[in-house]
Amino acid sequence: MLASHVARQRLEPEFQISAIVSDPQKVVIDWLDGHQSTFHTLWLRDNCSCDECGDHSGGQRFFELNMLPEHLANRALIADTMLRIEWTVDGHITTYDPAWLRSHCHYEHKKRRVNPTLWDASITNHIPEADYAVAINDQHELLKVFDAVRSHGLCLLKNGPVKPEATEDIAAHLSFIRETHYGRIFEIISTPNPTLIANAPVPLRPHTDENFREPPPGIMIFHSIQASEDGGGESVMTDGFKLAADFKRQHPKDYQLLTTVPIPHRRFIQGVGLRAEAPMISLDYFGNIVEFRLNERTMGPLDLPADQIEPVYAALAKMYELSYDSKYHMKYLLKGGEILVFDNARVLHARTGFNGNRHVRLTHVGSDEFFSRWRQLRHDLHGDINLA
Ligand SMILES: [Fe+2]
User: Fold this and answer.
1) What are the sequence ranges of the domains in the chain?
2) Residue-level pLDDT, tens digit, the chain, 388 residues
3) Beta bridge partners of 292
């Protein structure tokens, strides 16, 4: 961590230890801001990152769980603002940075984990945005793109160039392009007799892309080269996490089904035989929504016991209906040069019909590298650690 961030954090009450109490099972820390954290001694001993035990964050680990003594008696004290523990069985000493401890407080796990800002059609007049030319030269502006995708699932990059090379330029700033059988870039150009529906000037229903891949495309990048002259071909974006949250309140039993039942998607065309299945809504251990997959056009035959067919179809129909409700739809006509970056694991895309000439370049980049760069930038520019 940068020294200036460490110094700043040490001054904040949130990161200052006011008192500690310990026993063989736990260490209880009172913080200056009034919060209290409880850390299990087993967890604390395991997370010693001294030279002897190894720095786990870099994959180095010399301490192994079978080395744990039976009793974790300890002497814990505050030394130079740090928590210092002497493990009395073998005299081993561990020192913990208070900022690191606070960011790992078990009580605050939900705050650290996915904490999305849910939105609906009302976001239309304040779409999260950044400036393309600034973002590719300035890390603070680039971080705005990552932050917006993290919080809202999407970011609009304005004032970008119409030159085709800009698609790969911005992709390289965000992550690595994931190549598929379409190649690195998919050209969405209106043609009279298209073989793919994406190239036809027809409206498309909200969907997430390519759920027949595992994993599906991560972060999508739409780079507009030319907007349709007739004003059609608007991008229609929907927050899948908002849909799921509302659906949970309205139809709790159906929600339970859609978070557990695998829904297959497949694409069998010349030279391609892709198939994958997952629940429409994926949850983490704490019940947070972490992934949303919806695409009526690519859904395959349900592979379920007969008694599940009716309830699952009923639940799916309700969710499709909800996703087609315009109160959830943010509409925006991408001008030439503008770029829309969004998380395909959360945000559904669609478009209105059009009759003019329209050209959008589409590519997608890996989520793992994308969020890796987000964590690095948050760390380098703001000193954040342990971002989930
Ligand atoms: Fe699509």
Assistant:
1) 3-112, 121-382
2) 455 565 566 678 989 999 999 999 999 999 999 999 999 999 999 999 999 999 878 888 898 888 888 889 899 999 989 999 999 999 999 999 999 999 888 776 655 556 899 999 999 999 999 999 999 999 999 999 999 999 999 999 999 999 999 999 999 999 999 999 989 999 998 765 666 666 777 888 999 999 999 999 999 999 999 998 888 899 999 999 999 999 999 999 999 999 999 999 999 998 999 999 999 999 998 899 999 999 999 999 999 999 999 999 999 999 999 999 999 999 999 999 999 999 999 999 999 988 888 999 999 999 999 999 999 999 999 988 878 7
3) 281
Query: Measured in angstroms, how far is the CA atom of residue 207 from the centroid of ligand 1?
Result: 6
d(CA 342, CA 325): 20
Measured in Å, residue 378 CA sits from the centre of ligand 1 at: 30
Which of 276, 303, 309, 294 shows the shortest CA–CA distance to 346?
A: 294
pTM of the model: 0.91
Tell me how far apart the alpha carbons of residues 228 and 137 are, in angstroms, rounded to a whole number.
30
CA 295–ligand 1 middle distance (angstroms): 9
Distance, CA 349 to ligand 1 centroid (Å)?
6
Distance from the alpha carbon of residue 317 to the mean position of ligand 1, in angstroms: 20
Distance CA 8, CA 383 (A): 9
* Dist. CA 362 → ligand 1 center (Å): 9
**Domain 121-382: homologous superfamily in CATH:** Clavaminate synthase-like (3.60.130.10)
Q: Provide long-range contacts, Cβ within 8 A and 24+ apart, for 79-85.
A: 81/10, 81/16, 81/17, 83/17, 83/20, 83/27, 83/29, 85/22, 85/27, 85/44
| CATH class assigned to 3-112 | alpha beta
- Listing DSSP states for 147-194 in one string gives HHHHHHSEEEEES---STHHHHHHHHHHS-B--BTTBS-EEEE--SS-
Chain centroid to CA 336: 27
The rounded Å distance from CA 143 to ligand 1 centre is 26
Nearest CA among 204, 292, 305 for reference residue 247: 292
Please give the distance, rounded to the nearest whole angstrom, from the Cα atom of residue 297 to the centre of ligand 1: 10
